[in-house]
């Protein structure tokens, strides 16, 4: 799965679970400031990414995620593991 495919899947997750327009979900978008996610949403997002990749996300790794680009990087590292 390449970066564009990951971004497309992430956009689907944001639209389906958080009601966020896919056009707002860009690599530069900040999860909390731009997309109005809260800590509960972040947990839900981590669960959806685990389902998407079939791999467990370590909480300490996900704490550093701040932007959609960070989410893409986290998914890439999970898929590479």
Automatic annotation (TrEMBL):
Residues recorded as bearing O-(pantetheine 4'-phosphoryl)serine in the entry: 39
Biological process per Gene Ontology, one example term: lipid A biosynthetic process
Post-translational modification note: 4'-phosphopantetheine is transferred from CoA to a specific serine of apo-ACP by AcpS. This modification is essential for activity because fatty acids are bound in thioester linkage to the sulfhydryl of the prosthetic group.
Annotated GO CC locations: cytosol; membrane
SUPFAM superfamilies: ACP-like
Pfam families for this protein: PP-binding
UniProt KW Lipid metabolism keyword: yes
Superkingdom assignment: Bacteria
Keywords for this protein: Cytoplasm, Fatty acid biosynthesis, Fatty acid metabolism, Lipid biosynthesis, Lipid metabolism, Phosphopantetheine, Phosphoprotein
Functional pathway: Lipid metabolism; fatty acid biosynthesis
Intracellular or extracellular location(s): Cytoplasm
Domain Carrier residue range list: 1-79
GO molecular function: acyl binding; acyl carrier activity
Keyword flag Transmembrane helix: no
UniProt-listed PANTHER family: ACYL CARRIER PROTEIN (PTHR20863)
General function of this protein: Carrier of the growing fatty acid chain in fatty acid biosynthesis.
Record-stated family: Belongs to the acyl carrier protein (ACP) family.
Protein name: Acyl carrier protein
């Amino acid at each position: 799965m390449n970066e564009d495919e990951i971004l497309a899947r992430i956009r689907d997750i944001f639209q389906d679970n958080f009601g966020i327009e896919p056009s707002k979900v860009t690599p530069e978008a900040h999860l909390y400031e731009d997309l109005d996610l809260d800590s509960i949403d972040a947990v839900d997002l981590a669960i959806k990414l685990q389902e998407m990749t079939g791999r467990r996300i370590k909480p300490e790794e996900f704490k550093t995620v701040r932007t959609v680009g960070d989410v893409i990087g986290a998914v890439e590292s999970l898929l590479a593991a």
